[in-house]
Sequence to fold (327 residues):
Amino acid sequence: MTLKIGPFTLASNIVLAPMAGVTDRPFRMLCRKFGAGLAASEMLTADVRLWDTPKSRRRMDHTGEPSPRVVQIAGFDPAMLADAARRNVDAGAEIIDINMGCPAKKVCNRLAGSALLQDEMLVARILHAVVAAVSAPVTLKTRTGWDRSNKNGIRIAHIAEDCGIQALAIHGRTRADMYQGAAEHNSVAAIKAEIKIPVFANGDIDSPMRVREILAATGCDGIMIGRAAQGRPWIFDEVNFFLAGGELRRELALENVRDIMRAHLEDLYDFYGDATGVRVARKHLSWYFRQHPGQQALRDRLVLIETPREQLATLLEQYDTRAERAA
Fold:
């Protein structure tokens, strides 16, 4: 299924969730290659005074990314968020996403992320300011409410639609839930039933069958996949294939997984430089190995390696050996 956000027709209604420390440019481009309809940047603070750091500069680097390029911003001040949105559009962003879903304490303690759900008037001021500031479509990522006694997701959705937000992604947990327990999508379905703009369901959606189930149960227009893409960026291809024909993809051969990992690591080294690239690669390798149990010894070796050449050589040696055994 395809859908539109502003002038953009997405090739797929299955999109990558923005995740701090995960959805850097190499990972976004990898997920787009495997069929993600959108891949938003890591959350960028709206305080432009903090942008002159290596981390912020990397988060704003969209060199070579396919259109539409999405930047997610977070903050609590309407004027600052509007300014941040303008600057990012001027720098090449084609969609601006506002974060009102992050439950992390360091974000919520600054009255940003999902902490904003406690103040619906402030939510309206923020959304109105950002939509008025840019010609690009503005989207919103949020949760079902502040806590289970205060599920105001429907009111937030109406505010968003009234302010001109063009798509909404809803994580099926409250802020108080953090990432504990199971996501519940009944609240997501209730929100979708109330508004006309596209809605993406998010939370604990980790397989093609689960995608189809949640689309049917919620009536949502699309699905946003987060943690399930870590170590498995090809999940978007699996989902798109299943939704198109009702059949599951064959499991990737080890040599295909090896080639994906090698290309990903090389992109990380190029993007971050050798020292930081090796460190960032470690967590991605841990996620890849999660798909193939029994790799703890190899993981333990790789997290101690300090150079790209040795890290990549160790990885390829191990996978070549496994592929030979499988043959």
In short: Residues 254-272 form the longest helix (19 residues).
